[in-house]
Design a protein that fits this description.
single chain, 357 residues, alpha/beta, six-stranded mixed β-sheet, four-stranded parallel β-sheet, 12 helices, 12 strands, binds 1,4-dihydronicotinamide adenine dinucleotide
């Protein structure tokens, strides 16, 4: 079957990104109203897989850089989670004017077809299960589709939240903190943050939360054991653990000196603005759980859907996240390096061992 690619202009190039080559596909509808990038970071372990982000960017180069960083993170995440997938990511630049959602995702689907299965898409910030169904009308290279019986599938966010929650429980235990007495600060109350808060409240923890979107905060304002603060202060809250569940680069030269918690573990991708930030956290004696280890639950769900596995297999793979995280922390301690360094070294080892020489 011929896969549709008409009505979209493509530019494919190989570019150097932080020491390794990436393949970048830039796509733009012929009308010029829909544009974005798909970045394939690594194919060593399988098809490049990662979510499709639909959000506003200040510039084209900001969008490209976001996709490149996210794609590299996906290579690490998929490798460490023992998934037969490479790393990739896509961004669609959200038009500022009124737009036709069906058209946006049809254009994106044609870009998937152009890559012919080297990149597989699923949900990310700004996209939903309904958007994945929109894509499926034009392209087969999409997952995160509605569930079919006991088979894995559907919106990956609840599994991401579960992996973050289990990681937080393991980190509290490691630090001898009873979850029922723990105070957790959660930044971002979207699909993952909201679900995580529900799990933490069930365990008896006390929460302080913040979100830029008033509607997201509303349901928490009157909830017992929850305080709401403004977004400029959430990272400064004196809590046992800070869980970034909004957008990336929230841990940086400005915020790290102000952090009020001694442990950081959350869902957001690319929490560190740059590699030096891992050292700044370590210098402040703050235990930073690498985001791509903690937030792998969603991509595990997507991978199991791709592999035709069941919910039980998703459960088993997500339940392995906390032990993997604690193992990395112990190894980092023994080697006097940061958990992020250990995680990246291990992921790189897995990737390079399978790269063609
Ligand atoms: P979402 O878009 O549903 O939620 C993000 C929330 O953060 C929104 O409510 C937004 O208003 C809020 N926000 C944005 N900027 C903020 C700020 N400066 N301070 C406080 N709140 C702010 O996204 P979702 O799906 O919940 O993802 C959250 C993070 O987790 C993202 O970084 C995403 O890439 C990452 N992630 C998500 C996965 C998933 O399965 N959904 C999988 C792995 C990572």
């Amino acid at each position: 079957m011929e896969l549709a690619t008409t009505g979209v202009d493509f530019r494919l190039e190989k570019v150097e990104f932080e020491g390794r080559k990436q393949t970048v596909l830039e796509f733009k509808s012929v009308e010029g109203d829909v544009a974005g990038f798909i970045v394939v970071d690594s194919l060593a372990l399988g098809p490049a897989t990662g979510g499709c982000r639909f959000t506003s960017y200040a510039s084209r180069s900001d969008a490209l850089r976001d996709a490149q960083r996210l794609a590299r993170g996906m290579s690490f995440k998929n490798a460490l989670a023992e998934l037969p997938l490479g790393g990739g990511k896509s961004v669609i630049i959200r038009p500022s004017d009124n737009f036709d959602r069906d058209h946006v995702f049809e254009v994106f689907a044609k870009a998937l077809n152009y890559l012919n299965g080297t990149y597989l898409a699923a949900e990310d910030v700004g996209t939903s299960e309904a958007d994945m169904e929109r894509i499926q009308q034009t392209s087969p290279f999409v997952f995160g589709l509605p569930k079919d019986g006991v088979k894995a599938g559907g919106n990956p966010s609840p599994r991401t939240a579960q992996g973050v929650f289990l990681s937080i429980m393991a980190l509290l235990e490691l630090n001898n903190i009873d979850p029922a007495n723990a105070h957790i600060a959660v930044q971002g109350l979207g699909s993952v943050g909201r679900e995580l808060c529900g799990m933490l409240l069930k365990r008896g923890s006390r929460l302080t939360v913040a979100d830029v979107d008033d509607a997201a905060v509303r349901q928490f304002r009157s909830a017992p054991r929850v305080s709401v603060v403004d977004t400029g202060h959430i990272h400064t809250v004196t809590a046992d653990l800070f869980a970034p569940c909004a957008l990336g680069a929230g841990l940086n030269a400005r915020t790290i000196p102000e952090l009020g918690a001694k442990i950081v573990a959350g869902a957001a991708n690319n929490q560190l603005e740059g590699p030096d930030d891992a050292f700044s956290l370590a210098k402040r004696n703050i235990l930073y759980a690498p985001d791509f280890v903690v937030n792998a639950g969603g991509i595990i769900n997507v991978a199991c859907e791709y592999l035709g596995e069941t919910e039980d297999q998703v459960e088993r793979r997500v339940s392995a996240i906390p032990a993997r995280l604690i193992g990395l922390i112990h190894e980092a301690h023994a080697k006097h390096i940061t958990p992020s360094q250990v995680a990246e070294l291990k992921a790189n080892e897995k990737i390079t061992a399978r790269e063609p020489s």
